[in-house]
């Protein structure tokens, strides 16, 4: 974080390339923080990048035949196989360079998917690709539900959230399960780099993407992508909501490099979770008891994470 | 000089993939395809073939990896059977619409349930309309040859479609046959490295797999169906050139003793060889019976087929798959539509036999033909059911 704060002291936009690889004109909703995150990711990776995209919001908004928002080579095949398609691209480029059929060059291969395409239907393909050790970056744009099909719950939907398949009913008050911890699943594959990010922290996000690109082997980045449409939130509040997710401890920003945890924003005191929940329509129905339940869980998870930071850095610093 | 070697067909198939200098192999083990990929992993790990062997976690990913690698410009190979094909079928349909020249060997095996590892054609028939070029082969030599022919056709800039070779599980994959190997220089001349028209590379960015609204979807499908029907002359050309080089000529529809035949038996795959014995014995007894083998399944050779059965009064079709609640087997359906508009149309009788590895002996073919001759009308029957 220190490094990023230093940079914030200078005129920030001059530090960032003006070139766009995910270009304007796409059809994302107003205030879509996922489109913003994707734009920053594409910018950070630059020109030498090939993208395999899963089906989902970002695919649909960017590729209506015969138009495209992509200034880099991009392929969409299906919903659950972005990691497998990226495996094939990586292997193909590698062998063609080795056999001298295309000139040697450092090319990033990136797979992108939403939370459904990652933590639900695409988990097997992702696990396979990480286990096999392909040199690629997987970016999960987590907007916490199947937004493209109309806000249905996924395993990444937080506890209590009302979606179209976990509605706040008179008996069942929304999502009854806790958000699947996808970054930890990635960490369990012993890959060299795992990070969480959020487009409300653009410099932190871009730094992580660049780091992931430089590392050999699989890298996984999980980006909280605020969805005003699905979260029932005014579009102008998207960046603010992302900041609150981090500052309340709902979505801590951290990295795991070669198994070592590092909290990028280490807060001595977390803001009350209610500040984050109350601005979103999907949590409108929560009772004080449920909010307390979430508060407790977030506190526990945050402590667990801090413990991992301490444990994995013991004797190192 | 070509050399003739006794070898298990799966091993010969893998050797052909090696000689084709494939760049990426992605496969998941399933009986009876396993020997092919086992041998391929050996040749890669022993440095005999410079390729990336990706041991994927499912067949769905096998086809997805091949989609990615082929889109990146690499010659890509996979191989599966039955449930594996069913699992990857979602992506099988997409590869043809992306116009990617992937080669797949399909070791034909019946689909569950009940679970069966044995041979029939229910797997391939489940994806009949996937948009791939699909051929059936009869023996090990044809498997070996069609690895080269397959890539040659698929990668032709006028074609650019995936190519599927159907070889019967166990009865072909697991038998030792004499295989005539091609010299590497002949292979290299027939099959130069793949030069993709478009590929995923930052030097020339392209978008692949864009979605189509109703305003454009129909047009993309018209282009796709034309691409498959218009592939026919290039398939014929590749077979002709291969024949000129090796003396082994292949045709979309092949006939055996059909001259003057009033009764024609129609088969696909390795049982065609068994059927020739039945034809020999019936002709020996003075019966005017011939055999027509459908090698090219997609694009379907309508004209060649009509010509092959032109003189027949009775066509007996043997299917190795069932269309439940439908008109019998998928091959017979195809043949009925092929002949429907004929002024003089033969009677068509359909047997479904050889399901899940049930043996079909020459005398079974004789029996089927006799039954078809004796019982009037057009009908279908599951042959050899034990009551």
Give a written overview of the molecule:
The complex is a heterodimer of chains A (317) and B (387). Chain A has helices at residues 2-8, 33-45, 57-62, 82-98, 115-120, 123-132, 182-187, 202-214, 228-231, 238-247, 273-277, 288-313, and strands at residues 49-53, 74-76, 108-114, 137-142, 193-198, 219-224, 254-257, 260-263. With 317 residues, chain A is an alpha/beta fold. In chain A, helix 2 crosses helix 8 (202-214) and helix 4 packs parallel to helix 6. Chain A starts with a helix and ends with a helix. Chain A is globular. Chain A has an eight-stranded mixed β-sheet with strand order 2-1-3-4-6-5-7-8, with helices on both faces. Chain A has a single domain (19-313), classed as Rossmann fold (3-Layer(aba) Sandwich), CATH 3.40.50. In chain A, helix 3 links the parallel strand 1 (49-53) and strand 2. The mean pLDDT of chain A is 95. By secondary structure, chain B is of the alpha/beta class. Chain B folds into two domains: 3-246, Thiamin diphosphate (ThDP)-binding fold, Pyr/PP domains (Rossmann fold, 3-Layer(aba) Sandwich); 253-382, Rossmann fold (3-Layer(aba) Sandwich), CATH 3.40.50.920. Helices cover 40% and strands 20% of the residues of chain B. Chain B has helices at residues 9-19, 34-45, 59-71, 82-97, 122-126, 140-154, 184-190, 214-229, 232-246, 271-284, 302-308, 330-339, 362-374, and strands spanning 3-8, 24-27, 52-55, 76-80, 103-108, 133-136, 163-168, 176-181, 207-208, 253-256, 263-267, 289-294, 296-298, 314-319, 347-352, 380-382. Chain B has a seven-stranded mixed β-sheet, with helices on both faces. In chain B, strands 10-12-11-14-15-16 form a six-stranded mixed β-sheet, sandwiched between helices. In chain B, strands 1-8 form a two-stranded antiparallel sheet. In chain B, helix 3 (59-71) runs parallel beside helix 4 and helix 10 packs across helix 13. Chain B is globular, with a radius of gyration of 21 Å. Chain B starts with a strand and ends in a 5-residue tail after the last strand. At the A-B interface, strand 1, strand 2, helix 4 and helix 6 of A face strand 3, helix 3, helix 4 and strand 9 of B. Strand 2 (74-76) of chain A pairs parallel with strand 9 of chain B.
